[in-house]
Design brief:
CATH architecture of the largest domain: 3-Layer(aba) Sandwich
Strand content: 15-25%
Strand order of the largest sheet: 3-2-1-4-5-6-7
Number of helices: 16
CATH class of the largest domain: Alpha Beta
Number of strands: 13
Structural class: alpha/beta
Distance between the termini: 34 Å
Length: 403
């Protein structure tokens, strides 16, 4: 099914491709910004609420194409054919691929359909935490996608460095837009602590959190790669030292990379753990947290950490790719060795016991997010990239005056 939109001869046709609808939130606001500056935008993903929401809020044309995250030769061929058909019909000037499977399939389809420009957005490296045959398949899939792309955008400097070391691309093909991230951080709106200044008491009541309880937070998919096991071990130490603490866990279960059953059972039976599940309003729960624990094993860019900083919440996270770009150690949070649950716990306890440091790092975090991850600056940088890649000086002159 396709929701159609009008066309204009002087518009640039841009098609974004995602595997899952949940990832379409990365484009929130961006499509409207580009649409007002000479772009006709389409978005392709599997069916889902977030895709429909993007169509309504940003006015894009949407196409629903199912793509398996796992290798499925027959289904993958069908998906390539569907993508090829859309590209031939819409004749895009640029196809912009996101997420591993969508990028690989759309890169192949774009080459077959002779799309002038294909760009790949590298959000992370799934193979880095995999082993054996699966690791090899994921690596070579990423390598092929980069090979088929005219340009690769990395969401952080550390991700760029890691991918370069692993020879996924040469140094001239890839770049990081400004200071990184996919879409910047909406620190003036969605992640503005002032938005929740008068509702924190109500939020705590909803979660049955006593007024004197100290709130530790975790926001991510409940997945092995997100460090849910390390979180659980660290929480045991934190609770022993600070029995007044409550752990708020925001995120749904990831069935493709589930945590150990014993880990989930431990969290579910703990009376001082609140399992919130998925939510569209992460800022609501960040607003009551005193510190965020983010023990992820790998990231492209530590988006949740930056969002927490925007809400003036310091972050304790592992010193892994992506997270080292999202926070500044000792200024907006604390980096601890990857996999070290004890260090994670010690850093969290330090923040609970040192209010001055906690507040200072939280304030520093918001200042940095406002300075380095402004959405409009990133959107303008991306617009410049598109225009430069296509080589359309007339549009460049017209739109620069408008911006």
């Amino acid at each position: 099914m396709t929701a159609s939109a009008g066309t204009a001869e002087n518009e640039i046709c841009l098609i974004h491709v995602f595997t899952l609808a949940q990832s379409c939130g990365f484009l929130s606001g961006q499509c409207r910004f580009l649409g007002e500056r000479g772009f006709r935008i389409h978005v392709i993903s599997a069916p889902g609420r977030q895709l429909d929401q993007l169509r309504i809020e940003d006015g894009v044309t949407v196409h629903r194409v199912s793509m398996d995250r796992v290798i499925s030769p027959l289904h993958d061929l069908m998906s390539i054919y569907q993508l090829y058909s859309i590209f031939r019909r819409e004749r895009p000037d640029i196809v912009h691929g996101h997420t591993p499977k969508a990028s690989l399939l759309s890169a192949i389809a774009a080459r077959l359909a002779r799309v002038p420009v294909y760009v790949h957005h590298l959000h992370g490296l799934r193979h880095s935490t995999r082993r054996g045959v699966e690791r090899s398949l994921l690596y070579w899939s990423e390598y092929l996608t980069c090979k088929l792309s005219k340009r690769v955008y990395c969401v952080s400097k550390s991700l760029f460095d890691q991918a370069l070391r692993e020879k996924l691309f040469g140094p001239t093909k890839a770049r990081v837009l400004l200071n990184g991230s996919v879409n910047g951080i909406d620190a003036q709106g969605k992640f503005n602590p002032a938005r929740y200044a008068f509702s924190q008491e109500q939020i705590r009541e909803e979660l049955r959190i006593p007024s004197r309880a100290r709130v530790i937070g975790f926001v991510a998919r409940l997945a092995h790669d997100k460090g849910i096991e390390e979180l659980t071990r660290a929480w045991g130490e934190i609770h022993a030292e600070c029995p007044e603490a409550v752990l708020v866990v925001v995120g749904g279960l990831d069935k493709s990379d589930p945590p150990q059953a014993a880990t989930m059972a431990c969290l579910q039976r703990d009376p001082d753990v609140r399992l919130v599940g998925d939510t569209d309003d992460v800022g609501k729960y960040l607003s009551i947290m005193e510190v965020l624990l983010f023990p992820t094993h790998r990231e492209g860019f530590g988006l949740v950490a930056a969002e927490a900083n925007a809400m003036e919440v310091p972050v304790v996270t592992f010193a892994v790719t992506g997270c080292v770009d999202a926070i500044v150690d000792g200024e907006t949070g604390t980096l601890v060795p990857a996999g070290d649950a004890d260090a994670l716990a010690r850093a969290a306890i330090y923040y609970l016991r040192n209010e001055n440091s906690r507040q200072e790092h939280g304030r520093n975090g918001r200042v940095r997010v406002l300075r380095d991850f402004d959405q409009h600056r990133l959107w303008r940088a991306l617009w410049n990239e598109y225009v430069e890649t296509l080589g359309v000086p007339a549009l460049c002159e017209r739109t620069t005056a408008e911006s």
